[in-house]
């Protein structure tokens, strides 16, 4: 009899505990269904969300090219851009999970970004200045690009792809890197175009572009 | 920073965020209601109960899931971390190959079956040809020609010295005929064991989860790079080998990667402050930082056409088209053997060859043998160990006949089989047998044996032996969990 009572008590406690766990866990959490921050990973790599916190994640493979094309405004990607995406998508996370970021993926993002940036440069160099979106001040048919003109392009790229203004630190990094890598002796049309692609690739392949 | 410390900090960050939320809710409530929350209803409204519950009670999922993510994330995977695991190459023969008509399956006691007349080898008095030690293959058909064309071409494409250092084990297993639903793919388990490749985690030939026409067993593999031609691997391995970045010299390429790394490093500070973002921040730093490291090294070359010894193994030269199967297979295998790629998944089609003849099947089997021989010979040329896993979907049947060259008439998945081979340049890996499970007198894989009726368990058995070949039995539990009991493990482990 006592054993029966104990079993009933134990069962009741377990049921109550389970209900409390389930009931209270997400109670009053307005964003409970909107994903959550990564708290742990099961052995199969699943991300377990925590209520009320944002899930740290990155663009999934299928969105990477679309996202770049959209933020750089190039419209239909060229065959080269599609090929770069196709050749590299295998190294990019399908789900965009935070724990899937890898070195081959970082490299793939640079390769794909470079192709879409090349599309952008080729499109803009054939447009009148007032029709361009990013490289408004750059003369693609001549050498010599002013630092300030690169800076303006960088600011537009940041607003377009990062969804925010570039910080002074970021602008400083970009301009000083380009300064130190392209000497004035290289001032010609090809270098101007290369600088534009270089600048665009560096920004488009950096974390803020792919952050979700 | 230690894994524990990161984990602890993460929890502290989450608790702090919750505390701030509570404080805000409490203040909001006081402001909007002009009183302190006192009743249960007030406290629920102010979010205090929710806070208390979430702070004191774990989620059910959280209680059940192992908390390992931060520990994993805290360590930057090394470019060479995969190299400690032996290269793993899968060859899938799509369509239902007669693997049990090349290797000669035996019963539980290791004896020949009463007859092989459904397996296209006639009665049990067939001649046996041994290779890889004492492994039985379908031998002389009476005219001095081996019945097993797979063994014939395997020998034609590898040296006796290489075969002398190779072990072979067959896994009788029933599988669905002509189906992409057989969970034979072991890449996910092998990747989990640590074979990741320095640049490409997984290579395949077909746009699927596994890179072949097989489903994955137990663990989803890293998304494979689908290799249609050699250029696919080259462009994935080398940054700026083609396209606009090819206009940059090596110094500028390194500089560009450094700039991406520096920008990303400063940008991840933002998510670093978010609960849960530390893992991503750490991985971004690891991956972009590793890119800088790798971009400073010479670009890897895995093109078999550029390596005289491997070109000879695969029968190609500088003029061979980059889409040629031997160029693609050879380069994929080379990438795996050199550690640039993790798991390598090759596939050949045309193995649904029951067209009323034996000719087509023999030709396809021979080609499969040639590929296996070339993989072994590549490993020998590079002085590397390799593990090969051969799969198919279903199998074939001949009319009941004593003819040792009986034609293939139909599908017969109950006579299915997989092979595993292991090569070690220092000598043949020791094995305690050459068959996992057995065939029955009905000439079918014994479905009573643990792996006999389940491709997923057969794949797990292959992985268990791979881990044993790596001398990493400590990985059995993390990779396979409780798939096998110790008694079953003793039955399926043939290596060592």
Can you offer a commentary on this structure?
The complex is a heterodimer of chains A (212) and B (496). Chain A is mostly helical. Chain A contains 8 helices and 2 strands. A two-stranded antiparallel ribbon of chain A has the order 1-2. Chain A starts with a helix and ends with a helix. Residues 18-47 of chain A have low confidence and may be disordered. Chain B is of the alpha/beta class and 496 residues long. Helices cover 40% and strands 12% of the residues of chain B. Chain B has 17 helices and 13 strands. Chain B has helices at residues 3-33, 40-46, 48-56, 60-64, 69-74, 149-156, 160-164, 187-193, 230-237, 250-273, 277-295, 308-314, 325-337, 359-382, 455-469, 476-480, 486-492, and strands at residues 88-93, 115-116, 122-123, 128-131, 135-138, 166-172, 200-204, 225-226, 341-348, 386-392, 396-397, 410-411, 417-423. In chain B, the strands form 4 sheets. Chain B has a 7-stranded mixed sheet with strand order 6-13-10-1-9-7-8, sandwiched between helices. Chain B has a two-stranded antiparallel sheet with strand order 2-3. The interface between A and B is large, with 82 and 83 residues.
Compile the SSE list and pairings.
The complex is a heterodimer of chains A (212) and B (496).
Chain A: H1 2-25, E1 37-41, E2 47-50, H2 61-72, H3 79-88, H4 103-125, H5 147-162, H6 168-181, H7 189-204, H8 207-210
Antiparallel strand pairs in A: 1-2
Chain B: H1 3-33, H2 40-46, H3 48-56, H4 60-64, H5 69-74, E1 88-93, E2 115-116, E3 122-123, E4 128-131, E5 135-138, H6 149-156, H7 160-164, E6 166-172, H8 187-193, E7 200-204, E8 225-226, H9 230-237, H10 250-273, H11 277-295, H12 308-314, H13 325-337, E9 341-348, H14 359-382, E10 386-392, E11 396-397, E12 410-411, E13 417-423, H15 455-469, H16 476-480, H17 486-492
Parallel strand pairs in B: 1-9, 1-10, 7-8, 7-9
Antiparallel strand pairs in B: 2-3, 4-5, 6-13, 10-13, 11-12
Helix pairs in contact in B: 6-14, 10-11, 12-14, 13-14
